[in-house]
Design a protein that fits this description.
Blueprint lengths: L1 H31 L4 H7 L1 H29 L4 H38 L4 H41 L4 H22 L7 H23 L4 H9 L1
Helix pairs in contact: 1-3, 1-7, 2-4, 3-4, 4-5, 5-6, 6-7
């Protein structure tokens, strides 16, 4: 029981750490995705670099969540627990590609400002290619792998009753919506647009509730006891 309680607490703390380190990335993305992003990045390079560093930490924490849950979830459905680990380990790879793109834009933006108007179009073309690659890596493939991994462990949560079923159902619906946002990005939906944000917000709030539940409540003791009895 103590082992399961510790597992729940560690998973909750990883969810919390991922949320805290990912939040500054939203401010970084607002600069990086602005219409005059090259000028904006050059003027706010320190803030962008700090956001990228925190984004890297968020990617590491995200990949660690399913690993921390695996020892408990595999007892109820090993295939889905393993699948969740696989997809959530792919997720940070795509986020790191996004971060590399942001770091590249910092260098390009500084060169863009120094070069002046005659060479501006060259830097804008390179910047546009990096922006497209970032969007697909983070908002299409990163969010889709996150959503698939989340769906898998929420199915196990629902089956096992390790957390309240209302929280599992909320997670299933929210992960489906976030997966839909990733799918739509592939077909032209702009990342961080109002509609994209509406699709993402349910999983954001659900994971805040989930991390609090895991830290303070832990897994359902009756679900653990039921498995032990079997």
């Amino acid at each position: 029981m103590n082992s399961n309680r510790n597992t729940a607490r560690i998973a909750g703390l990883l969810f919390l750490a991922g949320t805290v380190t990912a939040l500054p990335m939203s401010f970084t993305e607002s600069i990086v995705n602005a219409p005059n992003y090259l000028t904006g990045i050059a003027a706010n390079s320190t803030q962008v670099l700090i956001g990228a560093l925190l984004g890297f930490l968020a990617a590491v924490f995200s990949g660690s969540i399913a690993i921390s849950l695996y020892p408990v979830l595999k007892k109820y459905n090993e295939a889905l627990a393993l699948g969740a680990v696989g997809f959530r380990l792919l997720e940070p790879v795509f986020y790191i590609v996004n971060i590399i793109g942001i770091l590249s834009l910092v260098t390009i933006s500084q060169d863009f400002v120094r070069a002046g108007a005659p060479a501006a179009s060259t830097y804008q073309i390179v910047g546009a290619v990096i922006q497209a690659a970032r969007a697909y890596a983070s908002y299409a493939f990163g969010v889709s792998t996150f959503s698939l991994g989340a769906l898998m462990y929420y199915v196990v949560f629902y089956q096992s009753r390790l957390i309240p079923r209302w929280l599992s159902v909320w997670g299933l619906i929210a992960a489906t919506l976030s997966g839909a946002s990733a799918f739509l990005v592939m077909f032209g939906l702009k990342p961080l647009s109002p509609f994209f944000t509406v699709l993402i917000l349910p999983i954001f709030f659900q994971e805040i509730v989930l991390e609090g539940w895991l830290i303070f409540k832990g897994f359902n003791p009756s679900a653990i006891a039921s498995l032990s009895a079997k």
